[in-house]
Sequence to fold (417 residues):
Amino acid sequence: MDAQAQSALRVRLTRLSRALLWGDLEADTEQAGFITRFQAALAEGESSTREMAEMALAWAARTRQQSDQRAAVAFADTHVPWRDDNRHLWTFIEDGDEEDQPQRTRPQAPPQAGGLPPRHYPEWDPSSQHMRPDWVCVFDGLQPAGDATQIDRLLAEHSATSKHLQRLLDALKPQGRQRLRQQAQGTELDVDAALRAVVDARASGHTLDERVYSSHQRQGRNMAVLLLLDLSASVNDAVPGVEGQTVLSLTRAAVALLAQAIQTLGDQLAIAGFHSNTRHEVRYWHIKGFGEHWQADSAPKARLAAVQGAYSTRMGAALRHAGHLLSGRRADKRLLLVLTDGQPADVDSNDPMDLIDDAAHAVRELRDQASIYTHCVSVDAQADDYVQRIFGARYSVIDRVEQLPRRLPEIFVALTR
Fold:
């Protein structure tokens, strides 16, 4: 067969392999550049399969010829006599198995003694456009306690903000009993309405208006709020331009002020945090339960003082678990308030859009199936694109992290006005 009617791809690959292995063969200009890149990657230390694959794809794109797509392939002089012990030949890797490999920079969190068994949740699969059933394991845990006086000191440091919030809360606070006048039924006679009804009936000759009673109803808010905190490793980062402050320290102050405000209003409140280390380990930390009192009980403050950031942000699973817990509360309105500093991500997810789309599915599920209103507060100045994809119009972005202690309670007040 005419050599020009054959694909020379295998020949070129063989020449490249020999040049990479021995480095002393003559190579054309294109190969020489990739040999230099290959040797530089080895010189930097242990490389990765992904890095080599990216280099190979770049070589294929750079050296592609029209004949490469021909079915007939040239095999002459394409033997490379290297030694292969076949250790990788019998390793079968399915999609998703790579997450089972040990994480060099992310050690597995130890299991919690006496902890509950994991709860399994589905996750959206973008390739099949269906939910993967029982795909994610969520472990409940009670956040270990720290020093509650640290939270009291934070509240004292932000006393000016607390006074500002108190003025906002006075407009929302229930004002006790409200008297309803001119009722057809009631516990008392509405004297003014009765006299007016008699005068009108005599003047017009019409039937007496029977709405001459008054009754009372208790004014109040019947709201359940679950504050869900993103406790991924990035919250440990220092805040630029603010000495001695991290995202986590400002989060503690903001949460303490918000909890104090919600307690004043009498709303039901629970606080939890989450982080993840692959789909097999999403940790959900209970910081304050609905039945605990923020002011009278020091335990929630002690737990808030001890929260730490670690691992990644598998938000969809945490949203589903929080929604499951919130859906059991009796309330006129149920609000899931999410505080985060970045987009959903995890070490076993290669495409950043996968977990973003899964979180968006979780938000829609909570809205349509459990009537739970979800709102996100992000301190990532670049969050608008992905947070809008997840939460729609129900989000707020705080561009300056140092404003979080003041802005978070203000956002809550505006949401529930």
About this structure: Confidence is low (pLDDT under 50) at residues 88-92, 97-110. The CA atoms of residues 41 and 112 lie 41 Å apart.
